[in-house]
Amino acid sequence: MSKILIVAEHLGGQLNSSTARCVSCAAAIGGEIHVVVLSDAPDAVAAEAAKIAGVAKVITVANAANANPIAQVLAPQVAKLAAGYSHVLGASTTFGKDLMPCVAALLGVAQVSDIMAVESSHVFKRPIYAGNAIITVQAPSSMAVVGTVRTASWPAAANGGSAAVEAASVDAALPTHTRFVSLQQGKSDRPDLQSAGKVVSGGRALGSADAFKIIYSLADKLGAGVGASRAAVDAGYVPNELQVGQTGKIIAPELYVAIGISGAIQHLTGIKDAGTIVAINKDAEAPIFEIADFGLVGDLFQIVPELEKSL
Predict the structure, then answer these.
(1) Which of 59, 137, 244, 307 is the most exposed place for a label (fewest CB within 10 A)?
(2) Is residue 177 part of a domain?
(3) What are the record keywords, sorted (predicted)?
């Protein structure tokens, strides 16, 4: 029977919803699911993780060195904890993509990236070629599987669990060559882009950072997160943390509204798991209309204000 360890992602004392999505993936693999919380003060995050249905145990590692999520510091501890586990999973987020390859290297195994479906305990499906193809990969059954979970492909496991919380002491040599300096992050009162149920995105057709205000206004009316195409980010209309797509954030909201976005394959890869896709574009031949559930051809500067007024 599999025994699975999930590395919890958290920031500011709050558990990221990506952890619950990893639990759904682990449930598909089958086996006993444990979650490890590495922090300087892990109790609050551990309490949240313990409520996720399907989690049998939450392990806490309290260490002042874990105050900030530095992969080179966390990886040796995770590698030590991995003894006895058949699988070690993390989210395919900025955090997980930084941490899990380090864990895999320390354990001497190849990482399975972006797990989007589980065929069996050691056989998985993952996207390649910017999502244009899906490949089936098989990990050696004689070694631990270290993998990242494509969170857009998995629903978040529900609450309702009551897992035991257990403190652990890890004897691992931590590096001194890597240290935390500062954290710079965008601040917004809007829903987080990767966990928002509704997202409104703008593209290069907006023409300027000032014109992007109509995207923010519509998003606020809908209670939605705000995203953007790579072209809009490269043009300087919005900061890069709003970029949606293969080289940005891969998201799966219930509603995705693409405004002035033509639909390059890299962008479509980032939204293909969305529930309902709405596209507004003046070009009737734009690729975005090929995958949109609802499409409206016209001038966005006329349509969006009318839409907001109707709302």
Answers:
(1) 137
(2) no
(3) Electron transport, FAD, Flavoprotein, Transport
Residue 243 labelled as part of a binding site: yes
Per-block mean pLDDT, blocks of 10 residues, the chain (311 long): 94 92 97 97 96 97 93 96 96 94 96 96 91 91 95 91 93 88 77 87 95 95 94 94 89 94 90 93 95 96 94 89
Whole-angstrom distance, CA of residue 59 vs CA of residue 85: 13
Q: Is 262 annotated as a binding residue?
A: yes
Q: Is 280 annotated as a binding residue?
A: no
Q: Which of 167, 185, 210 is the last residue of a domain?
A: 167
Task: Find the CATH number of the domain harbouring 7.
Answer: 3.40.50.620
On whether 264 is known to bind a ligand per the annotation, the reply is: yes
Provide the residue range defining the domain that includes 104: 3-167
DSSP helix/strand/coil, 97 = helix
185 in a domain, yes or no?
A: no
Burial tier of 290 (Cβ tally within 10 Å: 0-12, 13-18, 19+): exposed
Is 59 flagged in the annotation as binding?
A: no
For residue 207, say whether it is annotated as part of any ligand binding site: no
Annotated ligand binding at 295? The verdict is no
* Domain match, 160 and 213 both: no
Tell whether 281 is in a known binding site.
yes
CA–CA distances in Å: residue 249 to residues 38, 69, 109, 192, 266:
24, 19, 27, 11, 11
263 marked among binding-site residues: yes
pLDDT of residue 186: 67
